[in-house]
Amino acid sequence: MTTSLLDVEDLNVSFHMRHRSLHAVRGITFTLHEGQTIGIVGESGCGKSAAAKALVQLHPRHNTTIQGKVLYKGQNLLELSDRQMQRVRGKEISMIFQDPMSSLNPTMKIGTQITEGIKRHHPELSSQAIRQQAIDMLSKVGIPSPELRFDAYPHTLSGGMRQRVMIALALVCQPHLLIADEPTTALDVTIQAQILDLLKKIKQDGNMSIILITHDLSVVAHFCDRVLVMYAGKIVEDAPVHQLFSQPQHPYTKRLLLAIPRLDQAKNQSLHPIEGMPPNLSLPLKGCGFCTRCEDAMHICAEQGPELIHVGPHHRAACFKHDKRARP
Amino acid sequence: MSDDTILFTPLSSSARATVEEAEILPSSSYWKEAWIRLKANRLAMFGLYALCFLIVMAILGPFLSPYSYYETHLQLKNQSPDAQFWLGTDELGRDLFTRCWWGARISLFVGITASLVDLIIGVLYGSIAAFFGGKTDEWMMRIADVLCAIPYLLVVILLMVIIGSGITSIILALTLTGWINMARIVRSQILQLKQQDFVTAAHVIGASNRRILFRHLIPNAMAPIIVTLTLTIPSAIFAEAFLSFLGLGVQAPIASWGTMANDGLPALRYYPWRLFFPAILISLTMFSFNVLGDGLRDAFDPRLKK
What topology is assigned to A4-92+175-264+276-326 in CATH? Predict the structure, then answer.
């Protein structure tokens, strides 16, 4: 748990459209240790997926600028060429997506799709060995009769099964880092739990770190070691999972936790949504992005963006409430 | 009684596995299902059979009669169809039956070759433009627009003047601008497809651009490509007939349906079969390709059909 696998330093992602630019990720910095699972939470459009895709450079080059550093095992991935990056993807870093219905190629047999990665990264293996490895992987992710499924087309499988195939596809070359972009959002709750347990099991078997992107806090509580809360393209809080749930420090995190419906709340009590909208990311942001929705907002919040500061030994938050000057 | 005692014993694990394996149906592919839907479409199947017939006759037809396409019988000119000349003769006494099937060879060859050239250039051009996007796409499609803006007949006539008329120059003339339609259709398809997660997934496992283009994107755009192809072939055949009719096509004594129709037109009032037979073959070919193309479109995308 001590060696760092991934160091992200001041990562910025902007998308350029014809008449405007969208600054989706605004300088995020974090470290992922070997074997650790980090959760990234935040509402839709806060830059979670944009940041994750930038780590493996999946954005089209012609309209995206990525700045900062992504140090993977000490190497800056943003400096690699397309061809070098292709060697990293799948073998070192892999990714699974939200919608299993669209993440498999409908015109290709499942087996062909899984072996594609092995063929690419281990061209020395015989086709028999490659086939065997793919079938082993399919049975590892819990596909019944993997030999028969090997020659099946994706449309013959259900959503949960396809997500399993997707996991097999992503993990068949034993990557050290898996980025899971809302892997359970499109699945129903029982399948959700199965898929998370499967990921947990595979993670324990191999030496793998996971970045889990989600907006489901219960998934985070169940699955992660550490949590990054993102808001308007920035990390607003970074804490070990227990501390985040027991002592949230940023007002946004507090409101997020308060917004979860509880079984023990009185029947006639209404839910607690966070009022207002997140700021428009195509405009420059002067103060703190949350200040219009924040109950504790101060004058400085509209003037100046807060920095991430330590509020505990492993706990950082970006809020002026924790500034020395704010304490009465 | 003994049957019941067996039936109500717990299921053994091996028996359970057999049940599970039996549940997996043999996977029928997209193409097989499309073929089943096509077979149910009678009009499209008529088109398919008619095309097979035309192709077989184009190959075998000239051997069925004792005459060759250039052999003249000046005493027997403008014969009506009879036992000796099955479809009659033209003004030089050439056998129309033989000439019709020779014309089929020329017309089908020109149509299919021109369409295949369109297919290759169009698919490559359109998919590369869409795949790389941005400036590349912008430039490539603007060049295509410029080519498309040149009047087609003018290009053909210029080509004929420069390299002379003949099959090669007809094919060249047809493909010079013909691929643009295919390129546009492929581009729009690829633009849609490349947004999909499975393409990102292919990027994620480290697949190369070439592999993503040829194994993931183009196969998924195959249905509209095939439909466009079956609709390009008749328009190419028709364009050939049209050019030959204007006298810009193949030169005598080689026959194509267009030249035969052109020859037959002045004699329409006295010897109507000289126009009738090539015209009916052109119509049959157009009709067959069009209904087959429509049928394929419905078979590939059943949602379109109401």
Answer: Rossmann fold (3.40.50)
